[in-house]
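User: I'm putting together notes for a lab meeting next week and I want to include a structural view of one of the chains we've been expressing. I don't have a solved structure, so I'd like a prediction I can at least talk through. The sequence is below, exactly as it appears in our construct file.
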Amino acid sequence: MPNHSKARAIINFSEIQLTHSSSEVAKNSTSASYDTDDTTARWLTVFDPSGLVTFMSKVYQDASDIQVFKRCGILHLMQTEDIIFAPNCLPKEIENQLQARGLNLVNLPKPNNQGQVDPKNLLNADLKNIFAHTEQVTKRLHTFKILRSIEKPSFKHLDKILVVIGNIINQFGPVIDSNTSSTETIAVRLPDHDYLVA
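Assistant: Thanks for the context. Below is the predicted structure for the 198-residue chain, given as C-alpha cells.
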C-alpha cells in the first residue's frame, strides 16, 4: 500500500447560486430592465484526512476556482511534501502552483455509476477507497439546507454562516474512528499548527 503518512488535506471547492429575494422579484416583475440573472458564490474548504474542517476561505462572488485559490492564501499554510487530495480534478494552474511549492497533489479518480474506477485512472489500488472516503467527508458540508439557496441580500452574511457550519461539522467528530482499521485507508496527521475556521 502507498505511504500516505504525510496526507495533510482534502480540498474542496463549493459553489451555490445566489438568488433574488421573492420580494425583489415581485417588486420588479414588471420592469423590462430587471436583471433576472442569478450569480454564484464560491469558496474553498479544507478538511484534514479524518474529516475535520481546518480551513474555510472567504466567499467570493462570481469567481473561478483559480481566483478563489489565489485570493484565499491557503497555499502559504501548506508544508512541503504534504499530500493533498482533491475529489474533483483541479485546474492545471492550481496543480502547477501546488507542485511548485513541493506539495503532492492526488486528483482522485471518480467511480462510474457502477462504482468502478476506470483502470486508466487507477494510479494505485487504494485510490477508489480514498475517493469514497473524501466524498463522504465533503458531503458533510453540503448536508446543510441553508447552502442550497442563498438570496443575494444574505450574501454579506455567508462568510459567518460558513464559519458556524464548519464548527458544527467539527463537533460531529472525525468521519473515521482512530480506533478502527479504517484509518489504514488514509493515515491521519492533524495539522501541526491551527489554521482552523476563524
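A couple of points you could mention at the meeting. The beta strands are 7-19, 39-47, 53-56, 60-61, 83-86, 104-107, 150-151. Residues 158-172 form the longest helix (15 residues).

User: Perfect, that's what I needed.
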